[in-house]
Design brief:
This protein has 83 residues and is mostly helical. Helix content is 83%, strand content 0%.
């Protein structure tokens, strides 16, 4: 009986779905993101860094494609020549 009374007490304390939903909506509306305001010079620096990284990534991707095509063609050549 002691356990049943404790469980009933817990049930009275628990929130229902509507209360939880209201709390979640209130919490999500309160969460605001604050970004640092950049000057034009800082914005240009960030933009240039992003462009440089994108260029580096694209060159690396092209290098990987060329290497993989070379390996595949070499494998085909070896299969037909030695096989």
């Amino acid at each position: 009986m002691k356990v049943i009374k404790a469980n009933r007490a817990l049930l009275k304390k628990s929130k229902n779905f509507r209360e939880l939903r209201k709390d979640y909506l209130n919490y999500s509306q309160e969460t605001k993101l604050h970004f640092k305001e950049l000057t034009d010079v800082e914005r240009k620096i960030v933009r240039d860094k992003i462009r440089a990284q994108a260029k580096k990534d694209s060159l690396q991707e092209i290098g990987i494609y060329i290497l993989s095509i070379t390996i595949v063609l070499g494998a085909f050549y070896a299969i037909f020549y030695f096989g």
